[in-house]
Amino acid sequence: MNRRKFLAVFGGGVILAAGAAGAGFVATRRPDAALAPWDAAGTAYQEPRRRALSYAILAANPHNRQPWLVDLRNDGRVVLYCDLDRLLPETDPYNRQVTIGLGCFLEVLRMAAAEDGYRLDISMFPSGSDTKALDRRPVADIRFEKDGKQRPDPLFRQVMNRRSVKEPFDTDRPVSDQQLLDIRAAATGKYQVSTSNNPIWVKTLRDLTWKAMEIEMRTPRTHMESVNLFRIGKSEINANPDGIDFSGAFFESLNAVGQFSREGTGDPTSTEFQMGLDIIRELCMTGMAYVWLTSPANTRQDQLAAGRDWIRINLAVTGLGLSVQPMSQALQEYPEMAGPYAEVHKMLAPAGGTVQMLGRLGYGPDVAPSPRWSLDTRIVKA
Length: 382
Prior knowledge:
Layout: H1 3-21, H2 23-27, H3 32-40, H4 48-56, E1 68-71, E2 77-82, H5 96-115, E3 118-124, E4 140-146, H6 177-185, E5 192-196, H7 199-218, H8 220-227, E6 230-232, H9 233-239, E7 244-246, H10 249-256, H11 262-265, H12 271-284, E8 289-295, H13 300-319, E9 323-326, H14 338-348, E10 354-362
Parallel strand pairs: 6-7
Antiparallel strand pairs: 1-2, 2-4, 3-4, 5-8, 8-10, 9-10
Helix pairs in contact: 1-10, 3-9, 4-5, 5-13, 6-13, 7-12
């Protein structure tokens, strides 16, 4: 969210609220409990599976739902399940994006295990799957095997720095051809990864991603799916460290004076809603280049593999000093999005296939890590 624009409209109330609270209020608004898993990664656990999992739970995933559950009851083995209470039925009706997030988790798990000399033998959907919806069957059966030939993945160095940057990018700083080549090279090569900084393509994709964003916001049920996942302020974020977080004294002050709330942002007649539209449009118009990933088919295995490539792309982008934000709205499969879905596939996959991920690239600001549930809350109990 663009704080400058909020201040321009709501500045007086924000300043009064923050001033009344004092400097102590500002200094104590960090949701430390929700960010503790970032500090615990690689240090809180010695057992190889838990150590690797402490990094995997930091992986990118849609709406920060963290849809992973793991069963550790058998030595040397991790069975991954989807937490079916963490789906996004309105914007992701076939659970494709959630499956991609589970693929991100698997790739970070693999890289973290390699750091300790373990090879992962991964069987994807060993009991089968349903293309229409995820269910209680395992997503992956993973065996940890000690392997003296296993080598660390250079991309792992960026796991702790990786972010999905949902802020405007610097429109005075272009993304170079060489940077795009390096980004494409980070993928596994299993599927097609494409990029463009061509001004005509950039303008077209800016407009298309904004059109899709606006449709999602103006469709009540899809917009409210996001609004209902807002976590506003330290207390809410610590209590539920998932969803879409709004942390810090700025947003807590807005909320305290009634100028930023779930009710207001969910009301299409409100100033908050219109400000949200304006801010998101500005954000969309700052994409400086784009990256997308296409698979020939759209099986559950394809979706997992796309997630593994997507997190590799995200880590490579981080290593280059760039930022990336997924722009997945035009790829969503509900009726109101049919127009942008057809447009983006005609443009980016003219020979057929499924565009699994699309992201805007550029130079963004440094942002804080997203909150996370602790590893212990993600383990299936006997």
